[in-house]
């Protein structure tokens, strides 16, 4: 396997690890609802509720960025003036809520879904004599997906298999979305050859329209053949037999 594939695999694994840490922190310290926003020319704004579950006052910053993907990077962000979220800064007492309003500043694209992330970032407390020697302070950041439906209202998505690679006991299957809207993978299942037992792995894996990505699949030690089932939120369940042909 060449270095380019190994680098991709390492990058994907690191991203998933970070995502997992953030999810655990979110459960402990903050509540965000809904966890995804869908906008359109008929529904140009929405509201996200942020709740402070901590026992101390917390301050947050809100920023909306355009979201794209490449083969090498699962998350590529850039500034945008097409969406706005307010308020951009706020503080919450313990148990307090804040409504963050996100809205479109331009009409939707005519043919393809636009993708964004609304980042809610916990701001580090100001240094005082009491906390100056407390060490590193971890800041929570949650990225809420925001999708803007094309003005035609016609949505289609695909999850087309491209290739796969095996790194140790971790399989990476590359899929491409040739549709005009995103696909979200919510679970993956693996069943060994001749076995009814399944390894079920939760997933939060998006493939944006016109993009591709490597989906990690956990395999039992020594297993290289069997059935992979990819469960999505909009295409149902898709099955692939291993080894899959490139």
Describe this structure in words.
11% of the residues lie in helices and 48% in strands. It is mainly beta and 246 residues long. The protein folds into two domains: 3-148, Immunoglobulin-like (Sandwich); 160-242, Immunoglobulins (Immunoglobulin-like). Strands 2, 4, 5, 7, 9 and 10 form a six-stranded mixed sheet that branches.
Architecture blueprint of SSEs:
Layout: H1 3-29, E1 30-33, E2 37-39, E3 45-52, E4 58-68, E5 76-79, E6 83-86, E7 89-92, E8 97-104, E9 114-122, E10 141-148, E11 160-167, E12 170-176, E13 183-192, E14 199-207, E15 212-218, E16 226-232, E17 237-242
Parallel strand pairs: 2-10
Antiparallel strand pairs: 1-3, 3-8, 4-5, 4-7, 4-9, 6-8, 9-10, 11-12, 12-15, 13-14, 13-16, 16-17
Could you name the key traits of this structure?
246 residues, mainly beta, Immunoglobulin-like, 2 domains, 6-stranded mixed β-sheet, 4-stranded antiparallel β-sheet, 1 helix, 17 strands, 11% helix
Name of the CATH architecture of the largest domain: Sandwich
What form results from the Cα inertia axes?
globular
CATH homologous superfamily title of the largest domain: Immunoglobulins
Please give the CATH class of the largest domain.
Answer: Mainly Beta
SSE ordering: HEEEEEEEEEEEEEEEEE
End-to-end separation: 14 Å
Count of all domains? 2
- The amount of beta strand, in percent, is over 45%
Q: How many DSSP H or I helices?
A: 1
The CATH topology of the largest domain is given as Immunoglobulin-like
